[in-house]
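User: Predict the full complex structure for these chains.
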Amino acid sequence: MIIIDNLHASVDGKPILNGLSLTINAGEVHAIMGPNGAGKSTLSYVLAGRAGYEVTGGSVTFLGQDLLAMAPHERAAAGVFLGLQYPVEIPGVSNLMFLRTALNAQRHLRGEAEASGAEFMKLAKAAAEALGLPFEMMKRSVNQGFSGGEKKRNEMVQMAVLEPKLAVLDETDSGLDIDALRVVSDGINRMRSPDRATLLITHYQRLLDYVVPDFVHVLVAGRIVRTGGPELAQELERGGYVSMAA
Amino acid sequence: MTALASVSSTLPSRRDEDWRYSDIAAVERAWPVAAEVIDVAAGDHARRMIVQDAAIGSATIRQLAITLAAGARLDLHIINSGGAYGRVALDVTLHQGAHFELGGVIIARGEQVLEIITTVRHAGPGASSNQIVRCVAGGTATATYLGKVAVARAGQKTDAAQSFKALLLDRGATANAKPELEIFADDVKCAHGATVGELDKTALFYLESRGLPPATARALLTRAFLSDALASIADDAAREAAEAQVTALLEAAL
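Assistant: Here is the predicted structure of the two-chain assembly.
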């Protein structure tokens, strides 16, 4: 589904990713773990196309297309979803309006028919209910006044409605209590399917108890230094990242 | 309730504080101006909407002399977006316990010079006023809000608030804001705030990452920004109509 090859990227002229390579096939869940400053968030922003994250080398091929040549909204329509570590508050724009505009903008770009009001409401209601987000909150401004956990649930509601092919979830587990972690994990697991893939970016092994990955990668100083199965996460939990640096 | 009052005869110049950001050549074309009068009787609640959407290149000046009798209330909303030069100037006098609510929107692009000028006189005790003005300016346009609050000696327990925020869409655009307080009573509350900024880049990225094309994302954020000034329209249908009007104007401007 996605082939990241020898990716180099800088922020403010400072190299952060230094030759990162990673291939994710449809149906797989990959986890990237790493210490602060390893480049985890940079990777997610580079994949989503955020301004200021400059690719200085390498390539990213998504479903046969050059992902790096696409604008952020085109990447979204092609099927890339970035779950943000810190979802943004947008006063004055309701969740429902935002989500409906996003869904239809994506469908429009893909040449598909737009969702009717009724079709959209059905999708949104089902997603909010599954993620334990009161529907009242869907009518409120995007993330405004939401707790950390509610913001993350809201990200998952967006993901459920937008149905991406590749979900890149940046620290989706941060700021969640154990109940919210379970609900959010269920949300991620529900999206697992043979034609979708997930890239979990996380500090902690905790999330991986609920969303069991097929592969775990360790990112240190902008490169993947180890790859293994779920047991690698356990090893990290015991030995820390220091043991991986060599 | 609305009538024409006295006609000012002397042409203003930029030396006059209230006209220092104006396009005087355009002012000359619109001069002289007759003030429109709005009187709201004691205890009455009036609502007014002023849409300044004059043709491209024209010069429009609206001057309103507004008096709210004791306990009266006026909700006034302004959408100022038309012409080469457009000015809406209010002179509001509040008597005891009256309330004046203003929501002002300025959408300026090209070389437009658009202004909202207010003088709110708290003449009697216990009157309140709340003014929210939001503006977007693009191109080399100039958007100005000058807001004066004058509290007379009798205006004890005045509660006056002003909030002005401007969004600049282009480097050449200008926003001017000047709050002015003139207070002769000693027990009053007068708050004011003014900010000038650009669209939040993080919010733009967030919207784009969900699939909104950049122009749509910008329009959505800009509309949300302006909607602050329309939130005080109590009637849902009227508010939605005003928001639709703002949306249409933004589509032309962005």
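The first strand of chain A starts at residue 2 and ends at 11.
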